[in-house]
Amino acid sequence: MSDVANLFPGVKVILIETSHPGNIGAAARAMKNMGLTELVLVNPHDYPNQKSIFRAVSAGDVVRDAQVVGSVDEAIADCQLVIGTSARDRRVPWPMLSPRECGVRVAAAAEASQKVGLMFGRESRGLKNEELQKCHYHVNIPTGEAYSSLNLAMAVQVITYEILQGKQGNPEVQVEWDRPFADAAAMEHFFVHLEETLIQVDFHDEDNPRRLMTRLRRLFNRIQPDQMEVQILRGILNAINRLHKRISS
């Protein structure tokens, strides 16, 4: 395990399909500078590689301890708060945070023992739309107009710096909740069930979706339901499924 104190247990930096091993090491160094040690790699193109250890300098332990997974869903399955970096405006706007707002929110979530996933996309094209739709929030790092492209490790450095500042600045106290927030795996099961049910009752047309599920994902991610609320919603969907089956038989 990493030989440095993890100031933010449960907060994961997730790098998706990283092309260059040096960027993994540089991102690990940026993380360790700010007290984060939990690194997850989704389908890295070249890992393990000594270039990652070399670029990490004294954060080689973070690189060696990195968890490697095969999909974004696997990376965020246990996360109750997911934030994705996005440099582009989207056709369907998503709740957006500044880096400072992101830092305060993540620091407060960590203080409340929530699992948090911070997703950083590919060096060449960032996160895909379907990956961004799995997030509760997007975060954008402002840059000068002349050159807006940030290196992956630079982006990790900016966001993790703001998380550390959020912790040191005594982030706003969140109201205690009676149930843990639903994690990404539970929400994904709910969205699949919801879409199947909407198709079943002829409300959702797969051939002409009109961004219905995108907007419903945004709605429920914005609400951030807890575990019990998701169970209630799944129970309502099950009742609809049973009624439709009786009517159709």
How far the N terminus sits from the C terminus, by CA atoms, comes to: 57 Å
**Most strands sheet:** 7 strands, parallel
Helix content: 40-55%
- Strand-pairing-aware structural class: alpha/beta
Describe the structure in your own words:
The chain folds into 2 domains: 11-168, Alpha/beta knot; 184-248, Helicase, Ruva Protein, domain 3, CATH 1.10.8.590. The N and C termini lie far apart (57 Å). It is elongated, with a radius of gyration of 19 Å. Helix 1 runs parallel beside helix 2 (50-56), helix 5 (99-111) packs across helix 7 (152-168) and helix 8 (184-200) runs parallel beside helix 10. Strands 3-2-1-6-4-7-5 form a 7-stranded parallel beta sheet. Strand 1, helix 1 and strand 2 form a beta-alpha-beta unit. The chain is α/β, with parallel strands linked by helices and 249 residues long. The chain has helices at residues 21-33, 50-56, 60-64, 72-76, 99-111, 129-132, 152-168, 184-200, 212-223, 227-248, and strands at residues 11-16, 38-42, 67-69, 81-85, 96-97, 116-120, 137-139.
